[in-house]
Design brief:
By secondary structure, the protein is of the alpha/beta class. It is built from 14 helices and 17 strands.
Length: about 450
């Protein structure tokens, strides 16, 4: 049975790139820039210095805590280590490597020793793998479960509901064996008894490929789902595949689930088999300004400009360039921005598609409420934000907003709803911090 969910929208898919077309491999770039911050958590600290020779798969950055290492994706020479602007307006440390064109692998690239759960989690960390569907959360943390008996099922996210993007779809059709190997690893080391693969029903080739896997392992269940955005949202996906509801403030594990992206799992299997860490990424290159849209496998650190050039450059002047899809993607300030671990697409749009309509007053039509997959009330959030009252903002439950943009998509007044929700979240955090500080002072004065 295919479950549906409340709300959601149906944007034009624009997934023109047929999945029976071959993914093209980008030749190694002359120069690449590898940021030390490519995931949620602490940034890496460089482990090399200017002038050092590096080879493919060599660890060049790492740190403690919520962090995974980064690796050289070409062999060559470290030309400089400095700061660069990131897409969020801040700065980060980055290592620039000049390729020698040889792509020599590092001596450490050997299959890891994995004989138990602890070694498996350690291997996932060493691989440098993060959530490759766009979230960028360190995967080893997600798999670090204190009580494995709580894991009732693993839900593999193959929804890929964002317009344009087909990189995960190609993983399911082209790397089905890797996904199967990854599932076997989860069963062996986490004791997983059920693996559910959620796929939108507009991807028949991917569904067929995953159903072939289910014939080899009765623990695998393939669940086609209606093509609707944001079908791939974590809480939405869990509900649609298991009928479980993740309560506010809780994690998927609290309802017995671990959610993983299909490409993430395929890369884990590849690392355990070969020892080559995450040094390249399959991504969709598309948009109205792109001359020849393609799916490309490119070394991490390759500039957007080089990848766009590989796709024939631009047929029109790009007015907006983005990491990710048009619904939740992030606009970038420069074509020199590098491909990151969690980059599943880069899109470039012409003036017509990039020009936003003018915002007009809210007409109280209720479209945003009716289409929010989490049943939030954007007008109430905007009113609470305008009041500056943290307690009123808290009542709106804006903290559970996934910022999917479904509300904006259906708004006839073109309101900047997600922008206001983000501001409301920031106000809420400040309010909660103030309350915590007040409580601490009261306890100290007792």
């Amino acid at each position: 049975m295919a479950f549906s969910f409340f709300g959601g929208v149906h944007p034009n898919e624009n997934k023109w790139y047929a999945c029976d077309k071959e993914t093209q491999v980008f030749p190694e770039p002359d120069v690449l820039v590898i940021p030390m911050s490519q995931h949620i958590g602490a940034p890496c600290k460089p482990l090399v210095k200017k002038g050092d020779l590096v080879t493919v798969g060599q660890k060049i950055g790492d740190n403690q805590g919520l962090c995974v290492p980064v690796h050289a994706s070409v062999s060559g020479t470290v030309k400089k280590i400095d700061t660069m602007a990131n897409s969020n307006g801040g700065t980060m440390t980055a290592i620039t490597i000049e390729s020698d064109g040889e792509m020599r692998p590092h001596e450490s690239v050997v299959p890891p020793t994995v004989t138990n759960y602890e070694e498996f989690v350690a291997a996932v960390r060493a691989s440098g793998i993060v959530g490759l569907g766009g979230a960028g959360f360190p995967t080893f943390v997600k798999l670090s479960v204190k009580d494995l008996s709580k894991v009732e099922e693993v839900v593999l996210n193959g929804a890929e509901c964002e317009p344009y993007i087909t990189a995960d779809t190609l993983t399911m059709t082209d790397r089905a064996d890797d996904i199967f190997e990854g599932i076997q690893l989860l069963e062996k080391y986490l004791g997983v008894k059920k693996v559910i693969i959620g796929i939108e029903d507009n991807k028949p080739q991917a569904i067929k490929a995953m159903q072939e896997l289910s014939k080899k392992d009765s623990a695998i269940v393939v669940k086609p789902m209606p093509a609707a955005y944001p079908q791939g949202g974590e809480k939405v996906l869990i509900y649609n595949t298991t009928r479980k509801v993740v309560p506010e403030g809780k994690l998927p594990l609290d309802v017995g689930c671990i959610v993983m992206n299909v490409t993430t799992l395929a890369c884990i299997a590849e690392y355990v088999r070969t020892g080559m860490p995450l040094v390249e990424k399959c991504l969709t290159v598309d948009g109205s300004a792109v001359a020849t849209p393609k799916n490309v496998i490119a070394p991490i650190g390759t500039s957007m400009k080089d990848v766009f050039d590989f796709c024939g450059g631009f047929k029109e002047e790009p007015r907006k360039v983005m990491y990710g899809g048009p619904m939740m993607g992030i606009a970038v300030p420069s074509l020199e921005e590098p491909i990151l671990k969690n980059t599943n697409a880069i899109l470039a749009f012409n003036k017509k598609d990039a020009t936003l309509p003018d915002e007009t007053p809210c007409i109280r039509c209720g479209n945003c409420i009716n289409h929010c997959p989490l049943s939030l009330n954007p007008p109430a959030i905007a009113k609470a934000l305008a009041s500056g009252d943290g307690a009123e903002i808290a009542k709106t439950k804006v903290n559970i907003c996934m910022e999917c943009g479904a509300c904006v998509f259906v708004c006839p007044a073109h309101r900047m709803i997600v922008h206001r929700n983000k501001l409301a979240k920031a106000e809420l955090r400040a309010y909660q911090t103030k309350l915590a500080e007040q409580k601490k002072k009261e306890e100290e004065n007792k």
